[in-house]
Amino acid sequence: MSFEIFLATAPGLEEALYDEVRSKGFKQVKVTNGGVTTIGGWPEVWRANLWIRGASKVLARIASFRVLQLAQLENHVRQIEWREILNSDTPFRVDASCSKSRIYHSGAVAERIQNAITESLSSNYSPDAEITVMARIFRDICTISVDTSGGLLHKRGFKERVNKAPMRENMAALFLQQCGYKGDEPVYDPMCGSGTFVIEAAEIAARLNPGRARNFAFENLITYDPKAWEEMRDVRRQPNADIRLYGSDRDRGAIEMSAENAARAGVGEITSFKQENISDISPPTSEPGLVMVNPPYGARIGDKRKLMPLYQTLGEALRTRFSGWRVGIIATDSKLVKSTGLNFMPQGKPVQNGGLRIRLFQTDRL
Ligand SMILES: C[S@@+](CC[C@H](N)C(=O)[O-])C[C@H]1O[C@@H](n2cnc3c(N)ncnc32)[C@H](O)[C@@H]1O
Q1: Which of 67, 88, 265, 306 is 20 to 30 A from 213, comparing alpha carbons?
Q2: What percentage of the chain reaches a pLDDT higher than 70?
Q3: How far apart are the C-alpha atoms of 308 and 335, rounded to whole Å?
């Protein structure tokens, strides 16, 4: 059985996700709004959840049809072979949305879908169910999907504590990829917060699968094969030798948190964290690599002017001490980034991150 699989990501990172999904061997990959699609069966769904760093969710698209009335919708949904997808003893919930369509009442859509599914299965609807059936009606085309991930995929399952404004792991991984990081050079984050960039970079170097330690919603579907999944999950790959990853931050709590998070992720031995102010930073290794950093954004009014000296100090430290390194800065404000005095390549697309539009600013080798 083959169907369309949708991998969602933050808007603005679709092309980067496309590169990752293609590079990992998935077939017929296409960029679409808010993510990419590929074609495959349930093993590809499990593999996508296990392997892909840049996705926030993996949806199995099980039906798509044109619909103008609620009764028609209910008929279509009744025809789906729910017994081959959902477990009759596992509760499910429905998440519906409508836009630019004759049908506009998402509450009514969810209710009709619930009714149609409960007619063919004894399983119950529950608002807190782990299985979500998603219905999106856009320009009168209804797409029915099952969310196979459950909790968002940036939750790798290792971070118990986070600092202020942590970068989501899936976005951090795609920004590292956009800076050309392949797991074979040192990475240094001098404002590491809870350690997201350093830990993602370390996992890539150690060739660990991002989904190796968490649970997924697909484990509750009838299509789940625990033996095949165990075999897939237990494959160990040869780590890249001798790569070390570094983080520093002026905040002691952040450093402790980063070290704990790295240890829990199993990359404690290849990562080092130390407390240091940005004015005192120096290259942690003689071999140049990639500096990857997201300084405070200054989202509140008045913050930007106050942050100018911090960006200037970061820029001066990098320009004068980091010869041969490449730099990637994630920020919202191009004036602040320009104040570093670094020469940046043409800007990438803005990326939606909550209410903020962030951007990757990258340099060539300094
Ligand atoms: C936006 S957060 C980084 C979040 C991080 N990427 C993560 O995922 O958790 C910015 C970090 O810069 C640190 N910071 C602010 N001023 C600093 C300075 N002068 N020197 C070093 N670190 C500083 C803060 O402590 C904070 O952890």
Answers
A1: 88
A2: 99
A3: 9
Distance between CA atoms of 42 and 216, rounded to whole angstroms?
A: 13
Q: Is the CB of 196 under 6 A from ligand 1?
A: yes
Does pTM surpass 0.90? yes
Instruction: Say how many Å lie between the CA of residue 223 and the centre of ligand 1.
Output: 44
Domain residue extents for the chain: 3-147, 169-211+238-362
HSE, side-chain direction, 13 A CA sphere, residue 241: 0
The CATH T-level fold of domain 3-147 is VC0802-like (3.30.2130)
The CATH homologous superfamily for domain 169-211+238-362 is Vaccinia Virus protein VP39 (3.40.50.150)
pLDDT higher than threshold 80 for residue 53: yes
Average pLDDT, the chain: 94
Residues paired with 273 in a beta bridge = 247
For ligand 1, the distance from its centroid to the CA atom of residue 277, given in whole angstroms, is 10
Is the minimum distance from the CB of 165 to ligand 1 under 6 angstroms?
A: yes
Phi, psi angle pair for 275, to nearest 5°: -80, 125
